[in-house]
């Protein structure tokens, strides 16, 4: 039988040995990052993106409230607030900024010119053309991340619209002139249309205040929407207007089709958020942003809304339907 004094001594030694482990856990270094996002925190699509991002970070060992602190800033639809929000994040002491969409990426790049704070970009159109990085393979500087939207995809969407509407010769292009970065994409679409023998009706608008007017001016057999943060946030209104004008339209993300859009073709937004977490992980572990190649999506989703097609009196070609990743019935 164990001696009572030995038993008590064992307990005492155990208690004395326990605090260092507890203390080590309590003193684990907390890393601070900032996220610059469009929209507002209560929006379902924003919540879903944040959740995907944080879950991916947790899978890599970064747990919010334990060894990670995330400062979120939302610019809604007001790009003019981006410099101020970047300044807020820097003053809050973040170690890197995750910038979602091209306007946020440009603002984050400008705000970190002197302090060289790492910037991870997501959902950005052609970061080389925007002057964010030197090249995709060797970004250089303090910016890296993912280019999940690029001009060539809009050319593919125009080709899909031709396949959907073989007889169409005139296509309207709705784009937000408040987003200068879209001019590169627009030029690519124009070149593709010329090769396909299509005429384009350019409908440049400035923010959602002019969207209704833009649709009133549609005089074309089809429509392609050059997506940006503003059109994405108002996708339900845009798809409703397209349905009301009875114009077949194609969009960039599946969320448009979920909202009633006819066809969407592009990368998965939530997957981009998850991939973005891997860049954050590498940088927090010591990698230099300029040494991490910019990633581009390798898989694109083709989503077809058969309910909308039926409402428009359209029959989706079997060849196109067979290639769809998702069909909404």
What's the layout of helices and strands?
Blueprint: H1 4-26, E1 31-37, H2 44-59, E2 68-74, H3 82-91, E3 97-100, H4 102-111, E4 119-122, E5 143-145, H5 151-164, E6 170-176, H6 182-196, E7 199-205, H7 211-216, E8 222-225, H8 229-233, H9 235-244, E9 249-251, H10 254-258, E10 263-266, H11 269-284, E11 301-305, H12 306-312, H13 318-323, E12 326-328
Parallel strand pairs: 1-2, 1-3, 3-4, 4-5, 6-7, 6-8, 8-9, 9-10, 11-12
Antiparallel strand pairs: 10-11
Please sum up the structure shown:
This protein is of the alpha/beta class and 329 residues long.
What would the average pLDDT be, to the nearest integer? 88
Q: Distance between the terminal alpha carbons, to the nearest Å? A: 74 Å
The secondary-structure element order is HEHEHEHEEHEHEHEHHEHEHEHHE
Task: Provide the gyration radius in Å.
Answer: 24 Å
The spatial strand order of the largest sheet comes to: 7-6-8-9-10-11-12
Fraction in helix: 40-55%
CATH architecture of the largest domain: 3-Layer(aba) Sandwich
Shape: elongated
User: What name goes with the CATH superfamily of the largest domain?
Assistant: Response regulator
* CATH domain fold name of the largest domain: Rossmann fold
User: How would a crystallographer describe the biggest sheet?
Assistant: 7 strands, mixed
Please report which band the strand proportion falls in: under 5%, 5-15%, 15-25%, 25-35%, 35-45% or over 45%: 15-25%
Low-confidence stretches: 4-25
Number of domains: 2
CATH first level of the largest domain: which class? Alpha Beta
Count the helices. How many? 13
How many strand elements? 12
Question: Which structural class best describes the helix and strand composition?
Answer: alpha/beta
């Amino acid at each position: 039988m164990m001696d009572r004094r030995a038993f008590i001594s064992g307990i005492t030694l155990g208690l004395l040995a326990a605090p260092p482990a507890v203390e080590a856990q309590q003193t684990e270094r907390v890393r601070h990052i900032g996220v610059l996002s469009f929209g507002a925190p209560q929006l379902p699509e924003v919540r879903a993106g944040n959740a995907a991002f944080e879950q991916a970070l947790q899978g890599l060992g970064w747990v919010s409230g334990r060894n990670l602190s995330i400062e979120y800033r939302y610019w809604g639809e007001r790009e003019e607030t981006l410099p101020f929000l970047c300044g807020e994040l820097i003053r809050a002491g973040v170690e890197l900024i995750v910038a979602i969409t091209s306007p946020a990426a440009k603002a984050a790049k400008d705000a970190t010119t002197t302090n060289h704070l790492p910037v991870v970009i997501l959902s950005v159109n052609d970061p080389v053309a925007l002057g964010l990085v030197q090249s995709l393979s060797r970004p250089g500087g303090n910016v890296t991340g993912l280019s999940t939207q690029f001009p060539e995809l809009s050319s593919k969407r125009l080709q899909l619209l031709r396949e959907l509407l073989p007889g169409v010769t005139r296509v309207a292009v709705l784009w937000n002139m408040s987003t200068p970065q879209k001019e590169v994409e627009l030029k690519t679409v124009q070149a593709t249309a010329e090769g396909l023998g299509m005429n384009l009706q350019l409908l440049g608008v400035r923010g959602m205040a002019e969207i209704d007017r833009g649709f009133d001016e549609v005089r074309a057999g089809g429509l392609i929407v050059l997506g940006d943060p503003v059109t994405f946030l108002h996708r339900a209104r845009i798809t409703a207007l397209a349905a009301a004008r009875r114009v077949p339209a194609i969009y960039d993300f599946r969320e448009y089709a979920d909202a009633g859009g006819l066809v969407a073709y592009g990368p998965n937004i939530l997957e981009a958020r998850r991939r973005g977490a891997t860049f954050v992980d590498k940088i927090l572990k010591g990698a230099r942003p300029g040494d991490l190649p910019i990633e581009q999506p390798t898989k694109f989703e083709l989503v077809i809304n058969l309910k909308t097609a039926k409402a428009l009196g359209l029959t989706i070609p079997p060849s196109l339907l067979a290639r769809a990743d998702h069909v909404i019935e």
